[in-house]
Amino acid sequence: MNKLSPSILAADFSKLGEEVKKIDQAGAEYLHIDVMDGMFVPSISFGIPVIKSLRKKTSRVFDVHLMIEDPDRYIRDFADAGADIITVHYEACKHLHRTIQQIKECGKKVCVALNPATPVEVLEYVLDDLDMVLIMSVNPGFGGQKFIPFTLEKLRKLRHFISDRGMDIDIEVDGGVNLDNVEDIIKAGANIIVAGTAVFSGDKANNVKLFYDKMK
Ligand code: DX5
Ligand code: ZN
């Protein structure tokens, strides 16, 4: 099943709780939470205390996207704060296999993200341990960027790579997704859709509905 994961990076942080409740009530099944450290990516967003507070507002799946260097240092903290899925970047892990095991030991779902320039083949030996792969369709660091077209080809490649091995792994796509390109993105193989700007601008509840209509 295809699911929507609205990215709260595009929300109004001064009323984050209300915004999250609104999209929860509108039926979004996941909540995409972008953590940025000012090192792996240029921006700094928010961290563990914010996730802890939001955990009291909704029981939806917390899809925590860590855009931070050496994430091993904080896996346990994010797990305890309420993350359900923990995503680390291939490019930010010195010992990816160890990091993946750490997330599993915390009892959380594991996802590895690939920047646009990183080929899908780098995941060959760890695929067995993953619940999800995140294909970045923009260079991470900011909301509101333009979808990079060649990532559609990457999605197709990854979907084949996974199905050729008889596996069942979610593919999430993140960056520049909107109501005009979401159908092509799903056709290419993604089943978890992140959208920030396209959900949080204008009528949020209606945007969630429009996405689900297109994602059927
Ligand atoms: C980018 C973040 C995205 C971002 C998506 O670094 O990982 O999750 O919030 O925002 P939009 O949908 O506006 O491109
Ligand atoms: Zn993200």
UniProtKB/TrEMBL annotation:
Question: What top-level class of enzyme does the UniProt entry assign?
Answer: isomerase
In the record, biological process GO terms are: pentose catabolic process; pentose-phosphate shunt
- Please list the residues that make up the active site: 34, 174
Write out the GO MF terms.
D-ribulose-phosphate 3-epimerase activity; metal ion binding
Alphabetically ordered keywords of this record: Carbohydrate metabolism, Cobalt, Isomerase, Manganese, Metal-binding, Zinc
Q: In which pathway does it act?
A: Carbohydrate degradation
Q: Which family does it belong to?
A: Belongs to the ribulose-phosphate 3-epimerase family.
Please identify the protein, giving its name as recorded. Answer: Ribulose-phosphate 3-epimerase
Name the lineage: Bacteria, Bacillati, Bacillota, Clostridia, Lachnospirales
